[in-house]
């Protein structure tokens, strides 16, 4: 069976070979065309003879010649359809091209031709959307379905894109989502646009108007999802496509979106987050991307999650498509059509476009799912086979021809080619051939020696011969022969191995006085058959064009040196095969001083030679380079292993600087080449040129693998691992390892297995966790390595079987317990005993059995084979439950039976709070809360207190105790205006807990202001409640001092407003009277009252009640002290009748009117005396009321009006008979009467103005007619 012959691209070979058709170019499967352009459907093919073309449309033959609008390109199957003046829809359909010649038929894909479409938006009328501030909002787009689908975007009437952010975003389907609306979202021009890419047209939706109500805004809320809905949804995506998932949430504040994949990570490099993290995109999807994707929306009030279950399906995709076969007669070949998909694709085979079952009656090829086996093919049976793989998501089709040829061998490589190579480099000799059956290539040297595939030769599959390290002895004539059952052909090539070009004497550093000459030498050695070319460079550029620079055969001379001549000079030797270079610096100095000795690195050693060649040693000699004014200290010898590590130099040994030879110890099976570096005080020289290659013979390994280990990874196995030998350590070809093992302390033979190119071996079927003796020995084709050492390893562990017994608990104090147990037996551990874990949990408190148990289970680990441990940090007076597990490397064993124990009482925690209330002259009321942690049965409280003077000195301490049920106490007989400090703690039978402290002042000589103060009344004295003196202890928390307080606060009402008076004994100077309307959410207004003890609040609204308070503030404007707020009512102003005739303004107005009438009478009198006449028409019109005139019925214009000072009627206006024109109330244009006010695009893309409604007027329009036409009606009359 053969896989077929590759046809070379050589035109001379192809010219005479018959070849079935091959499709070389075709249009895509889904082809959408622009109806404004011609339809071009590509179909190109090659073959010998050149194929002819035919088409089918919708499964039936398509006669191209009968349709004058369809043209098939000459020599091609490409169709050009002229659709100008035709209905493009008539040419939609499914097309398929067939390329045929006498050797077979090749088919194109089914090409679906569809016209691009950009339909109009359906007519709709959008009502204004009114939404309350803070609520979510969805503006639907619902674009028309185009082909291909349109690109959606939102803009306003000015064609500005609407800004998108975390709060406002566009979904994948084009809808616009608001997580919460704000007042600035109010607008009347939310317009959705659809751009159709093929036709480059844009359609728009009718504008959507949104108005946001700011009254009673929506309160803050946790997120919920707007898209998708519910807690779970599904998504299917095809392999290779881009997965797009989106989650859009509403909430206030705006939620943030976070994506994650349950049970895995999002793929790196293919994952992108878009649309402000609301859209997750994963490109080039594969099967591993299926699973549950979780999007989490969160804000400060909570979070919400949605799970999207993603399934990945796959249209058919190639694993390996069938390839063309060229077979010789009577050969057998196979065509494979390897595809995959989800669901699994169905594969159908065709030959020359017919189902393969119909094409062969009998003796046809054998079909095995994705494989066609062609047996004993014969001349004339060439054909094109089609593989069609399909599932519900698509199909793949591939053509592969089978050409049956009988061709004698041909050698395609040009004859008598000469290959030249520099010694120690690889070389490749070519022997390209063609024939059917495939020729066999054989190489000969000098016409005699049959070259085998092996060191130093490698024969490649294409027939080329490679010499890895070319040596002079490899020079000569090489012959390749190509042979099959139809003939024989040979070709000759020649190989010349040349010596490398080397610079023997390198240019040296020169320090030259100005005006003197500088000489650089560059002596070379090269192959006699190669012509070298020497080039000199200065600072990597050409030499200056100056006669002072003289270039000799092996030197460069610079005459009359100047400062500009300083620099680096490089000698480069080139041949057609290689090159070498060396550089030196020129320094120019003054002529008089003696030059300073310059120390440099030594020059490289030269002339390396190998002598005394032995099996494991060789002697290396060399010639040292120039020391450059610093004696050579030592030589470093390096080697390269051309067989195992070509290109890598390794330090071998060092010798003193006085030596020029070294005896080198070598290893077997290494292709050595050496080089030498010299070192002086300045540093190492450049390495010498490599020596000739020296190969040592193979031998058995000298060492075995290291780091041998044995450890099981699962119950029932043993993994033996080691560090393998390097190629250098192998000492020969065929390196393998002999792995041996047996159970320790059992009379068993060694079990062994030989392995190669691995570093571990897994032994199955072993007992659980038993010791094994292990050995790993290296061997190669030349023998075994030394006897290996025995290493002890253990087979795999399993979970422990037993639980610890006899668990005992003793409790030495209220926070510590000692646990003891009986260890498990060693066999039941079934692994390495790592220790014991004690799991314990507080069940409840003893003083309150209803207490909730601790949900958090705690665990303490005790390593090693121990039998007891201590549990610290327990809670006193509690019931605990515990159990113990033993564990090994595999995991934990079963738990011991539960053990319950109790902890004794302890001292309580501090009281939960301590506060001071009802400050008065000599009494203070204290209130406190019980401890958060009683740690036992509470027996009472202890209170200690003492006065503190202004120097913070303490007075005598007094102490009182109280029973556990007392949490409030009033202390009497205290000093007036004195600071007291209080300490309170709680007690159990075990003692007192920590203190809590508090400081407070008694007042000076007046009562505290109380919660209710009526106008004109002082504060009411509250009743003093006292309790029996008892005691408690509290934590020593520093609490700020209460400080001085206000004295009596009184209120009254004067004609100017409420009057408030107070007494204040504090040191804060910033005092304010603050007030606010009762039952109002307004902020408190304040007026500064520094340095006073009373204040009148002016300008308050009569008949309204206000809350009033006095506040002392510090420098940071923070309230330090304040009185209780007082309710004050401002009396209503009495309704007093005012005689208007006695008012001064009225008298003045009457006088002005009388004067004006007198002036008018005088003017009329003068005019009458001059003979002036009034038109009758004016007299008639003077008695008419000015009214807005109706629209003219003849020309449809409006009645327009001007100011009374302008008597020129406007164009198209109707003038009243009194000769005046009433001025319109506004200068609004028609645009002001529209809903949205802006022009819009009609469905056909034209721009029209749309207006509706009448603009509201802010002023009265007098006696205007109620039937005056609106601008809308006027506009409609024109449309």
UniProtKB/TrEMBL annotation:
All residue ranges annotated as the Fibronectin type-III domain in the record: 604-699, 701-798, 803-906, 910-1006, 1044-1133
Basic and acidic residues bias spans: 1175-1195, 1253-1263
Domain Ig-like: 21-108, 119-209, 223-311, 316-403, 409-496, 500-587
TM helices/strands, residue ranges: 1145-1166
Entry superkingdom: Eukaryota
Major place of residence: membrane
Region described as Disordered: spans on this chain: 682-712, 1175-1279
Subcellular location: Membrane
InterPro entries listed in its UniProt record: FN3_dom, FN3_sf, Ig-like_dom, Ig-like_dom_sf, Ig-like_fold, Ig_I-set, Ig_sub, Ig_sub2
UniProt biased composition (Polar residues): 682-707, 1265-1279
Keywords associated with the record: Cell adhesion, Disulfide bond, Immunoglobulin domain, Membrane, Repeat, Transmembrane, Transmembrane helix
Family recorded in the similarity comment: Belongs to the immunoglobulin superfamily. L1/neurofascin/NgCAM family.
UniProt protein name: Neuronal cell adhesion molecule
Species of provenance: Ameca splendens
